[in-house]
Design a protein that fits this description.
It is a single chain. With about 475 residues, this protein is an alpha/beta fold. The protein folds into 2 domains: about 70-180 and about 345-415, Periplasmic binding protein-like II (D-Maltodextrin-Binding Protein, domain 2, 3-Layer(aba) Sandwich); about 185-345 and about 430-465, 3-Layer(aba) Sandwich (D-Maltodextrin-Binding Protein, domain 2), CATH 3.40.190.10. It contains 22 helices and 12 strands. Strands 1, 2, 3, 6, 11 and 12 form a 6-stranded mixed β-sheet that branches. It has a 4-stranded mixed β-sheet with strand order 8-9-7-10.
């Protein structure tokens, strides 16, 4: 996803993410093993029809806001934006307020800065980085949650998910949307034709990729035009290979990017990125492929798609839903394989943050912290909520249901996306910092030392030394 401020992420983020990922990895692997290879018992993955009409009984009290108007800014586009608008529409119905969605651009902090400078800030912004929340607080933009929103959050979220929305002990963010970013989706027909099996380790992944290649299909689709997908690749390899402690240290720039552990992870990545025939379109093709296309091209073309597998989070289901593939039958998924001793579990998310404090803005934050709101978007697919009060039956297919249940069952056992914890200039700006260096590394994966040196130079500048 994207990223953060010019100062290290706060201690609460560090504390929340310094918990072993072992339990979460085990829960995820068990869940996907139980459902990934079977039929989709949930009735498909498209639209609001799947998952039935079951929603939790209304548990949130909202004020009457007739005549009030609100603006909500987010970088979401396409289906994701349209589904979120349905959540906002229900808020309008319940309160009488009028809510306008404001499309934002990456990096959203820069977008918000322009809006605020122009005297027209949105009332609420969906921030996809913990550090971005901290930066918004430091700039005086963000406003703390009121008592009702904080109460709703406390009732429905684990402590870890609450903590990553805090700055200096005050609650500013509601992590409305989460992501499990340790998944590899695959074309089931391609695997069947090739006689390929779901891998559990990195070496098995390489063997599976070769099997797919030998069958006449390129193994991997990579959305390299979006630099954040490449940071996600790196983070999963690094977390599994170097371990949670090193991951936390690198996330806070307590060790340098020239550390031998980074060299090992980049060298491992090059085993896939460095094989031109393993990546659809080669490096040049991948660098021209945006994330949505990287997903759709894996599930179009029958049993001869452009690639057999695509790595990314549960939200890839939104894009799979734009094809004829059905999640659980045509499109299946397995956890990112273990590179070291334990399979990685990397999470991300988007937090609602109030910029213009008012009764209406506080009510919207309260609404977004409720299971009522999350259940609406959960039904529509391509969405995962850390809200533990959601009835998992609302998810539209068995795969998504099991991923959601594993996330909630894991509680605080996760690692938050490393680039989302970094300063924005390093981990979340298109064409700069980590995004750009990893794009360059995809183009020339032999230059491990050069990539490390550039990563460290950019990180040192962004973190302030």
């Amino acid at each position: 996803m994207r990223t953060s401020s010019t100062i290290r992420t706060r201690g609460t983020v560090k504390r929340a993410t310094r918990i072993s990922a072992t339990l979460a990895a085990g829960a995820l692997a068990l869940s996907l093993t139980a459902c990934g290879g079977g039929d989709d018992d949930g009735g498909g993955d498209k639209g609001g029809e799947a998952g039935g009409d079951k929603q939790p009984a209304s548990s949130v009290t909202l004020p009457k806001l007739d005549g009030e108007s609100l603006e909500v800014a987010a970088v979401w586009t396409g289906t994701e934006q349209e589904n979120f608008k349905k959540v906002l529409a229900e808020f309008e119905k319940r309160t009488g307020a009028k809510v306008t969605f404001v499309p934002a651009q990456d990096p959203i902090i820069n977008f918000l800065g322009s809006k605020i400078a122009g005297g027209a800030p949105p009332d609420v912004a969906m921030l996809p980085q913990p550090g971005a929340i901290k930066q918004a607080v430091e700039k005086g933009w963000a406003k703390p949650l009121g008592a009702e929103a904080a109460k709703e959050l406390g009732e429905n979220y684990s402590q870890g998910w609450q903590d990553i929305g805090k700055v200096d002990g005050k609650q500013y963010g509601v992590y409305y949307k989460a992501a499990n970013k340790s998944l590899i989706w695959y074309n089931a027909q391609v695997f069947e034709n090739a006689g390929a099996a779901e891998p559990g380790t990195w070496d098995e992944l390489l063997t599976t990729a070769q099997t797919i290649y030998d069958s006449g299909v390129t193994p991997f689709s990579v959305g390299g035009a979006d630099g954040w997908t490449l940071t996600d690749w790196f983070e999963n390899v690094y977390l599994s290979q170097a371990g949670p402690e090193k991951y936390d240290q690198l996330a806070q720039h307590e060790i340098k990017w020239t550390d031998p552990s980074v060299k090992e992870a980049l060298t491992t990545l090059a085993q896939i990125w460095g094989k031109k025939d393993f990546v659809a379109g080669g490096a040049s093709g991948a660098l021209q492929t945006e994330f949505p296309a990287s997903v759709t091209q894996t599930f179009t073309g029958g049993d001869q798609p452009k690639a057999g597998m695509v790595f990314e989070g549960d939200f890839a289901q939104v894009n799979i839903g734009e094809t004829d593939a059905k999640v659980g039958t045509d499109a299946k998924v397995f956890p990112f394989p273990a590179v070291g001793g334990t399979a990685p579990v990397v999470s991300g998310g988007d937090a609602a943050v109030i910029l213009e404090d008012s009764e209406a803005a506080q009510a919207l934050a309260t609404w977004l912290a409720s299971p009522d709101a999350a259940a609406i978007q959960a039904k529509l697919g391509g969405f995962l909520s850390p809200n533990k009060s959601i009835d998992s039956s609302v998810y539209p297919n068995e795969v998504q249901k099991k991923i959601a249940e594993a996330l909630v069952a894991a509680g605080d056992d996760f690692r938050f996306d490393m680039s989302d914890q970094a300063p924005q200039a390093f981990g979340g700006t298109p064409g700069k910092g980590e995004w750009k260096t990893l794009q360059d590394f995809l183009k020339n994966p032999k230059d491990v030392a050069g990539a490390q040196a550039k990563l460290e130079a950019d990180a040192a500048a962004a973190y302030g030394g």
